[in-house]
Amino acid sequence: MTTKQKVLITTRAAKQRINRALKPDLQTLKTARTPQAIIDCGRHYVIDHRKNYMVHFDVDLESFGQDLGVIQLWEAVAGE
Predict the structure, then answer these.
(1) Are the CB atoms for 78 and 11 separated by under 8 Å?
(2) What are the pLDDT digits (tens) for 23-32?
(3) Which of 35, 64, 66, 72 has the greatest number of CB atoms lying within 10 Å of its CB?
(4) What's the CA dihedral at 38, 68, 78, 29 to 10 degrees?
């Protein structure tokens, strides 16, 4: 009997994959650095550079990456 374990990927790798997927739409995943920004936007958020506003806030890297198709179901983000 085999156990199903997920392959861990780093937070950095997840961010890079997501940013590559968002680049054609001129969007970027950002990380909040100050406590107030984390309260306002969440730890991670997505900026649309054409419209100059936040399109996604409080982003969960693993589920957002899976929605974009850049993180597979057998992968998990380490540290999230």
Answers:
(1) yes
(2) 999 999 999 9
(3) 64
(4) -30
